[in-house]
Automatic annotation (TrEMBL):
Organism for this UniProt entry: Stratiformator vulcanicus
Molecular-function GO term, any one: DNA-binding transcription factor activity
Entry protein name: Global nitrogen regulator
Gene3D superfamilies: Jelly Rolls, Winged helix-like DNA-binding domain superfamily/Winged helix DNA-binding domain
Keyword terms: DNA-binding, Transcription, Transcription regulation
Domain of life the protein comes from: Bacteria
Compositional bias annotation for Polar residues: 235-256
Length: 256
């Protein structure tokens, strides 16, 4: 049995499907690998597939009117992306770029629409996914519009702690995702210089530390309080390390 079967079976979106349905998806889908910095798709590409991340990490972003990146989301192994225009019809409206060597399973849009039309549980699952992702985008937009640079950075660090943080045994939380100062700036809609200064301030205040180019959060409750966020629960243990060092002009090699 092809490995795609097990990747699809383990995805939360497809977990409600039976073996026959997963087998059909496995037979009609294909796997493809992308190098770091390579584009998976571009805005205005026709949306004819939903994509499952098997390994690596994907960054979704747009380009602002002044030519800067605005990061929308990071997509980790086991997560799908590119589903909205497949469901609603239309074209892609963001860039999808591999942040490191990444393997994807590409599922035809026709199969997704077939499942939506014939399996209410799947319809519920993909509708829930779209709703949660839209909420995430809306929260980020509100943060960009109504918060200061420091508040946006604090909010992002709390969000990253929840998704990528692990306690290191000393009440500190280490982020497994490495992001450069420029990449942090792209997420919060700021400049690299401003982010560098803000990170320095947070270190002086003993809220964070930076060790081996990795952010360590030393006082998560204080960061969360700055932006009126609940303190997330952080697990103990280890995660697969993720690195991110992006270029302004990624290589092409897209799949629609």
């Amino acid at each position: 049995m092809d490995q795609r079967y097990w990747h699809l079976r383990s995805s939360q979106l497809f977990e409600r499907l039976n073996s026959e349905q997963i087998t059909r998806l496995e037979r009609t889908s294909r796997s493809k690998s992308f190098a770091k910095g390579e584009l998976v798709y571009l805005p205005s590409d026709e949306a004819d597939c939903v994509i499952l991340t098997v390994s690596g990490r994907i960054k979704l972003y747009t380009i602002t009117s002044d030519g800067k990146q605005a990061v929308l989301a990071f997509i980790d192994p086991g997560e799908v992306f590119g589903e909205l225009p497949v469901v609603t019809g239309g074209q892609r409206d963001e860039y999808a770029e591999a942040m490191e060597r990444t393997t994807l399973v590409i599922v035809p849009g026709s199969e997704i629409r077939h499942l939506m039309g014939n399996h209410p549980d799947f319809m519920f699952g993909i509708t829930k996914l779209i709703g949660l992702r839209r909420q995430r985008f809306e929260r980020r937009l509100k943060s960009l519009l109504f918060r200061s640079n420091r508040e946006r950075l604090a909010h992002l660090l709390v969000e990253l702690a929840q998704q990528y943080g692990l306690r290191n045994g000393h009440s500190e939380i280490e982020l497994s995702l490495k992001l450069s100062h420029q990449e942090l700036a792209n997420v919060i809609g700021s400049t690299r210089e401003s982010v560098t200064l803000l990170l320095g301030d947070l270190q002086v205040e003993n809220l964070i530390a930076i060790r081996r180019r990795r952010i360590v959060i030393r006082d998560l409750p204080a960061l969360a309080a700055e932006v009126d966020q609940p303190v997330p629960t952080i697990a103990n243990g280890t995660r697969t390390e993720g690195t991110a060092s992006l270029t302004n002009r990624p290589k092409s090699g897209t799949t629609k």
